[in-house]
Amino acid sequence: MATTAQTSAHATPAGQPHAAHQGDLLRIAVGVTGKLPDEQLQQAQQMGCSGVVVASPAIPFDNGWSYDDLARLRERIESFDLRWEAIQHTPLDRFDEIRLGLPGRDREIENYQNTIRNMGRAGIPILAYNWRPNRVYRTGTIAGRGGARVTAFDAELAKDLPLSHGRAYTAEEMWQTYEYFITRVIPVAEEAGVKLALHPDDPPGHDVGGVARIMSSFEGFKRASEIVDSPNWGLLFCIGCWTEMGGTDYALNGIRHFGERGKLFYVHFRDVQGTAGKFRECFPGEGILDVTAVMRALKEVRFTGAIIDDHAPHMVGDEGWAPKSRAYQTGYLMGMLRVLEDLSQ
Ligand SMILES: [Mn+2]
């Protein structure tokens, strides 16, 4: 079979330059699913990505992920000449005790600490997380440009949803659980050489399902940044969420403030139509985001991490990981970056 032959020859020939080996520059990577299918890694390599962000590796999380499992996956990623840029999140059902301050929280924090240590040993530089325990995320999937399937959110439809965790959780409670968590894991992250990257609440600002959403504004992130003073604390800057919060200027302000302080660890790049109360996702350049201004701002603040596309709208024939949409969006980002680099020569 052709695919077998391609897979066996997937390594870049020795001596051939590859994006993954160009040092720590601003670069385009791509997100892959936790099982790391060959097709996704091979497509990432074909697109010329620097590396991959793994959603949540599909390996046992007993006392946290083990070094052996992580090291094995890293070898697999590197056999495709890709670097392992980051992990998007630990298993969500093992994080709720921590985020809600439930019994079992200390045990799960220990497991999280083990994970950070093992990631450091295995050379995986970034672990992302978010502070949004309920799974209310969108209120529907609708037809976008040319019938592409895109997700949408309408606060009107979400306001009467039942409590997601048995009772309401106030903003102050959520701040307390955040402080409890972050002050216990950051010292471990510093020792292990792993950066912890905080993603905004998505959708931002609406306390759907009764749990307050505190990471939904510039002020929220500023407050979070003041709890621990550490180079290992920073942001997974989701441009889509920041745009939902207040449009392009709002997102640019976030990039400048946190970028100038070295707090942008990696970036989700997506465009959106509408704002936090009612929005739909769309292809890059099709929404309210000034995509070039954002890319330029990332360069201006000397951001040197990975950018990946986010929530690919499904194109005709796309299923699951949406390979066509990934290719389109990743190519779009690469082209935009290349032009900006050439213009700034
Ligand atoms: Mn995102």
TrEMBL record:
GO terms for molecular function: ferrous iron binding; manganese ion binding; mannonate dehydratase activity. Residues 1-20 are annotated as: Disordered. One of its GO terms (biological process) is D-glucuronate catabolic process. It comes from the Bacteria. It catalyses: D-mannonate = 2-dehydro-3-deoxy-D-gluconate + H2O. It is an enzyme of class 4 (lyase). Residues 1-10 have a biased composition (Polar residues). It holds the Pfam family UxuA. Its EC number is 4.2.1.8. Keywords: Iron, Lyase, Manganese. Pathway: Carbohydrate metabolism; pentose and glucuronate interconversion. Its cofactor is Mn(2+); Fe(2+). Belongs to the mannonate dehydratase family. Catalyzes the dehydration of D-mannonate. This is mannonate dehydratase. The lineage of its organism: Bacteria, Bacillati, Chloroflexota, environmental samples.
